[in-house]
Amino acid sequence: MTTAPQTRYQRVTLEMWPLVAAICLLAALLWSGSLRTVSPILNVIASAASEPNFYSSALAGVGVLAGGAFAHWRQMRRQSWRGFAQACGSGLWVPMLASALLGVAVGNLAWGWTLASGAWQPLFAPFVSVSPTVVLMFGADVKTVLTGGMLGGVVTPPLSVFGASVVCPELGVPPVVGVTGGMAVAAVVAFTVCRRLPWLSELVRRDAEPTPAVAEKYGATWVLRRSLADFSEAQFFGSEWASLGLIAGAVVAYLLNPATPAYGSGLLPQILAAQAITAIVGVVLWRRRWARSPFYPTFVPIVSVAPACVLTYGGTPASVLAGALLGAAVGPPVAAAISARLPAHFHPFIGNVTAMAVVTSLIVPPLQLLPGF
């Protein structure tokens, strides 16, 4: 990445911070109509940041946002201990976050009525799908941020809601299959629309930051760092600092009230255990693929197969190990294979969420035929 683009994106970053704050406040006021009732709405937005990991906790959401902000601050100043580059190494973390937050706000405003029955609905979906990837594909200007937020909020929630609430019960598969499948379909629709928008005429692709020598990067320390960073990769953060904030927030929420995170299941410890195992096994197993390319989707089972298996089978030791090991072995190569075959105007995340849906549906339901499930 050359010096001039970095300077420009640092300037855009500073200009975007007020937009991030304005999106949160405006969404809260539109929902509530009063400053005194803003807190519950901000809680919804914060929870959306942790829901891809099955935590659904405002404290975990605040943790991942705070950790991401700290990592971004260190990365922009090229300071030590800055961790892996966020936002796919583009330097666009702040405008990406602005679009993601706007997507959640728009999605809840447009589709919040689906919560009337009291049932859970995946209205967090724009945060980790269409909204941020439009920025990653087309750049950091305000028009792109607004386009990503609006498209993500309008298109993604209904498809994910339909998948989780209608398709999954009929097929007998975990809800994450419908959520991620809805994200994939929504992304195809959204990026097809983007190709026809005159202000999004040029694709902007940026490679990850240059990497050090293989011997230095891919040792035991790197394995632990990469395993930790994968906890926040679904949010396009992919930073150790963001992941530490995410996990710390979830643990604090659990200690305060075990019924708060993990959809009231009380299974947060088992989910974290499964995710930690699948993260380490996946990175170790596919480390050579990381050595040959800037990115490899080892995070896929962390936010799909592993936690879905725990919730489906009650957190038994067998469900923790089976979901973690099978997910680590199958999820990443399937995601990489699908992403490699996508057209250039589709962001590779489509391959990742498609793989989450396919692999989860193939692994989790058949396990009920085995002893211990």
UniProtKB/TrEMBL annotation:
Q: Is-annotated flag, keyword Heme?
A: no
Tagged with keyword Methyltransferase: no
Q: What are the alphabetically sorted keywords of the record?
A: Membrane, Transmembrane, Transmembrane helix
The domain of life is Bacteria
Transmembrane stretches, start-end: 12-34, 54-71, 92-113, 119-138, 145-167, 173-194, 234-255, 267-286, 295-314, 320-342, 349-370
- UniProt-recorded name of the protein: Integral membrane protein
What species is this protein from?
Mycolicibacterium nivoides
Please name the taxonomic classification of the source.
Bacteria, Bacillati, Actinomycetota, Actinomycetes, Mycobacteriales
